[in-house]
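Example record used in the benchmark description.
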Amino acid sequence: MDKNMKIDEQIYQNLPEPLKQLTDLFEDRERDIVLLSCLGVLSGCLPKVYGIYGGSKVYSNLYFFIVAPAASGKGAVKYAIGLVKSIHEKIKNDSEQEAKDCKKNKDIDNDDCPGIKYKIIAGNTSSSQIYSSLADSHYGSIILESEADSITGAMTNDWGNFSDVLRKAFHHEKLSITRKKDNLNLEIDNPRLSMVLCGTPDQVKPLIQSKENGLFSRFMYFKFKNYSGWKDVFGYSEDVSKHFESIGNDCIYPLYGKLFQNPSEIEFKFSLEQMEYFNNLMTHISDSVVENNSEDFISNVRRHGLILFRIAMVLTVIRNYSNDNLDLSQDIICNNVDYDIAASLTKNLLRHALQIFSEFNDTLLNQQEDDLLFSLNETFMRKEAIEKAEKFGIPERTMDEKLKQWRKKKVIRKIKHGKYKRVLG
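Model output (structure tokens):
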């Protein structure tokens, strides 16, 4: 898989205006990171918007995991939190005042007063604190951590419970916990959690633990290896984070308020044509994965279908609001441009997930093999591979051996004698 695959330029040209303004401030990998982290944060900012997917009510919440070495630009993830800063402060301040007023009422026991609500919660916390935060959240919580170790450290002594929270929250499954020592007894219906994590390749396995436990397939992954090089530290004349806070104040904050104050929930839907495109796309991907990869990966494909639906939901709501075209008196129909963006982005991210998945099986290609494989057409002849390998300094006999190894690793499949096809394009 191509670990250095960037997000398609066409996606950036067609983004809703608020996201385009922000991503235009960056280049290369930082731009990719900013887009994904913004989508992750914004997925936690659409109260009362839902869709029906697979016969279940789902909300827009997404899990992103950006995987890259140190000094690669992944620190740009921190800017996205500015989009929700004013929402977080409003929710916190209002709930603090509500709790304060409640405690002044002598007829009410202090233990019965509501807790403080937060939109943004820390990742380096215990599972019991996560339960409490989700229970007291205002239409869901957001975790953004620039170092995945923050969560891994918190999970060390309580991995089972923490992992269970993350797995169930992704599908809004009921959470319950009882702990006598903490005087904790909570039941949470429809938990909602959005999450953006960054980490090095070595930080993935300690957090996910196993590709079979279901947590792996709930994340979208974006992985790259290249060192970003020295960056002009004087290239910006002002604090970049202010741009994110400005968009947060002027666009995301009033959007959140408009959705929250709506008397009823609003349904997001695909058009009939989009449903057909979606089913055809996911059928093609599923069939390809079943034919060419471990069946264990099929759960990733199925959840990426839901992920595509959620990305389209976020983009369409943001676009409609920024265009002053968000009518909450009727269903929200997915914008065709946003469907195309979501589909293109999801296909890209699924390839990255397959690359991470392969690392759990120790089937990873080295960098030279990766570059060679993706320098070839999706369908190629042995002769073409031999000619391309020569440019990489690889002898014919060695290339023939690599073709055998690649088939075993299921990154290519043989169509007929001397003809091969790369898996997942």
